[in-house]
Amino acid sequence: MKTKKLVLSVMLTGMVLLSLTMGAFAQTPTTTLDAATVQAMTDAINDEYHAYAFYSAVIAKFGAVAPFTNIARAEASHIKALEALFVRYGLPVPADPYAGKIQAPTTLQAALQAGIDAEIANVALYDKFNAVAQSDIQFVFQQLRDASQTKHLPAFQRALGNNATGAPSSTFQFGRRWTR
């Protein structure tokens, strides 16, 4: 039941982010972005690319283990929200430099700790972007920061706390939860 709620929450967050960046803010912008804002957007999308590549590598190595599966889907929606901002402001979307280039740690426990560290770093990254003037960009940054702080980080912390041995506590296969 918790997993279904988490999946629904992640999907809803992604849909809201995408609709807000493409809907309410879909008008052509009347301002050009300063170099610091463009750099902030670039840093943000690169961080999301890195997270998605890392979580995908963990899934490839250990199987469809929670919370990596749900958070990888959320990272994909974060990337889409940032891509929409690049398009809106007439900027080229940076290529993903991490796709297929990240290796998973040797244990699931190490991967969970790396997930914790990555989400803490992600929050700190978004905290540095408070000088961005455009309200649509501020909104997306705040939503992504909050997702890391209030959803992803606690999910990794719970998983590590419940899984101190590094053995998968459950896997998800064909829509069913299998407990080991």
Characterise the protein shown here:
It is a single chain. With 180 residues, this protein is mainly alpha-helical. It has one domain: Ferritin, core subunit, four-helix bundle (Ferritin, Up-down Bundle). It is 67% helix and 4% strand. The longest helix has 28 residues. The two termini are 18 Å apart.
**N/C terminus separation:** 18 Å
Structural class: mainly alpha
Strand content: under 5%
Rg result:
17 Å
Strand order of the largest sheet: 1-2
The outline comes out as globular
Helix content: 55-70%
If classified by CATH, what would the architecture be? Up-down Bundle
The main sheet comes to:
2 strands, antiparallel
Say what oligomer this is. single chain
> In terms of per-residue confidence, which ranges show pLDDT below 50 for 5 or more consecutive residues?
164-180
CATH third-level topology: Ferritin
Mean pLDDT: 84
Please, what is the CATH homologous superfamily?
Answer: Ferritin, core subunit, four-helix bundle
- CATH class label: Mainly Alpha
How many alpha or pi helices? 5
The tally of strands reads 2
Number of domains: 1
